[in-house]
Amino acid sequence: MDKKEIMDLCVQSCLDGMKNHEGGPFGSAIVKDGKVIAVAHNTVIGTNDPTAHGEINAIREACKKLNTFDLSGCELYTTSEPCPMCMSAIIWANISKVYYACTVQDARDIGFRDEHILNFLQNDCKDKKILDLEAVDKSEAMKAFEFWTKDNSRTNY
Ligand SMILES: [Zn+2]
Hints:
Blueprint: H1 3-19, E1 27-32, E2 35-41, H2 44-47, H3 54-66, E3 74-80, H4 84-92, E4 97-102, H5 104-109, H6 115-122, H7 139-150
Parallel strand pairs: 3-4
Antiparallel strand pairs: 1-2, 1-3
The structure holds zinc ion.
């Protein structure tokens, strides 16, 4: 399959999702060695899950199919430039190539806005009007960190 055919799968997936009132106009696919591993679309509305963006759903499906949390060597196709959450998830998944069609500006033009998230991140997470991020006592939580570092059977990721 070429890039256009794979992107067409993403578009068809999100069209199906919108017809079923599952979510917005966002579809994604994950490809490894030229083979489509997963195709998914936004299901925020249908699942009442604000994290169920197309990219996240595709990552979850690909990880389940490949039985791994590491998607190194995979490429992600998506109908629209990833939001900050998905960008982070893609990097966490070790995907190093993304092909996108519509831009952040195109998404803004139809009412999907993530610039307040980008602004928050670019301003060192200090804008309390967007998110009040407050550090509390860490002594108990540090015990979990100590457990992790001492556990020789752990799986690093
Ligand atoms: Zn997203």
